[in-house]
Design goal:
Elements: H1 2-37, H2 41-70, E1 73-77, E2 88-92, H3 98-107, E3 114-116, E4 118-119, H4 128-134, E5 139-140, H5 145-150, H6 157-166, E6 175-177, H7 187-193, H8 206-214, E7 220-228, H9 235-239, E8 245-254, H10 268-292
Helix pairs in contact: 1-2, 1-4
């Protein structure tokens, strides 16, 4: 009986998510195209704010079906740290596609809408890819060492494109979000990395450093830690409402001023120091998870 009920919840969740995405995309995409054609920066910024309102509505509708269909038991600690219409850098541990719904749910309309670093190839995902583009998500296109070796002109081009995509973020408050681990946690990845952390992959400072180097109004880091009680963190299992108990810890940390400089990305010494600072944050996060994890 429970399996049939969970299957019905999964199908219903999928349909609502699909309809919500398609309907709001029909409004968002034309506005994004109009914004792209407007030459004036300030007017484009106004269109961006309107498109963000639509994005916030998408998150709110998703939150409604998750809360009412899944009825999750959410324990949120530090929610008072999500306040203010300012510029933030944000990060979280990463275990599941469900993470995105959770961080959007807890931050929606409390701080500026999260701008996720997205792999450039994902712009071609039907409907949602162009919605990300309309929402001004920063697309990250990386070149491998082999590609650079074959074509030396590619060296530094990925950073130049990223810098261009971030330059207009100074026009209105934003929350730039980067998964510092770079990929979802798995025991196999953890073993391959020989990670020093019990519950986390090694953090990568690149995305965070790029944001700090190019958006000089960022002063604080919103650090989110998510703990699930389920071993199956697959997206379908989440849609079926099987991931019930979730602990969420939210910290707001003042970023040391020495890292709030344009040279953070280019100075090897400063970037190494920033990596050490991030590593220390990860040690604290690892202890937090160990002390609060569910006994499955």
């Amino acid at each position: 009986m429970n399996k049939s009920r969970n299957l019905l919840i999964g199908i219903t969740s999928s349909l609502i998510l699909l309809v919500n995405t398609v309907l709001l995309a029909t409004i968002m995409i034309p506005l994004g195209i109009i914004k792209f054609l407007i030459p004036l920066k300030n007017l484009r910024a106004s269109f961006t704010k309107l498109i963000i309102k639509i994005g916030e509505l998408w998150i709110e509708i998703n939150s409604l079906w998750v809360i009412n269909l899944h009825k999750p038991n959410l324990e949120i600690i530090g929610e008072e740290n999500l306040n203010g219409n300012s510029w933030f850098l944000s990060t979280s541990n990463h275990q599941s596609a469900a993470d995105i719904f959770i961080v959007q749910y807890i931050t929606n309309r409390k701080i500026p809408m999260l701008k996720f670093f997205i792999k450039y190839e994902l712009i071609y995902v039907p409907i949602i890819g162009i919605c990300w583009w309309a929402l001004d998500m920063p697309f990250l296109k990386r070149y491998t060492q082999d590609q650079i070796k074959k074509n030396p002109k590619l060296k530094g081009r990925d950073y130049k494109k990223m810098k261009k995509s971030l330059e207009h973020y100074s026009l209105h408050p934003v929350s730039i979000f980067s998964y510092a681990e770079g990929t979802r946690f798995s025991e196999k990845k953890h073993a391959n990395q020989k990670s020093e952390f019990k519950n986390l992959l090694k953090p990568k400072e690149g995305g965070l450093a790029v944001a700090l180097s190019n958006v000089n109004k960022i002063k604080e880091l919103i650090d989110i830690t998510i703990i699930y009680d389920s071993e199956d963190l697959g997206f379908w299992n989440y849609l079926c409402g099987n991931i019930k108990n979730i602990k969420i810890f939210i910290s707001k940390i003042k970023i040391p001023e020495k890292y709030l400089v344009e040279t953070l990305i280019s100075s090897e010494e400063l970037r190494s120091d920033f990596k050490l600072w991030l590593n220390n944050r990860w040690k604290e996060k690892d202890i937090l998870i160990s002390e609060n994890k569910y006994r499955i």
